[in-house]
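Table S2 (continued). Query chain:
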Amino acid sequence: MSKRPASSVSNPLAEFLRASRARIRPDDVGLPDGRRRRRVPGLRREEVAQLANVSADYLARLEQGRVTSASPEVLDALADALGLDRDGRE
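Corresponding output:
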């Protein structure tokens, strides 16, 4: 029996974080857009990490499904950084 690689395993938290980050423009949260072209829509992972006061590495692991849960404090900080409403926080 073969195991699926971690990157192909469905992780609702990881998928939700990536989608939420993609919906926000830097100027939506008071960050400069800069003149460099963005490879992905929305905020960069490092920008969300900075806004949430978590490490970019930890956020990357969450988004990649390598961490499957986070503390309520981290989830609240990410929700604040992403401007999530009540439904999004659930």
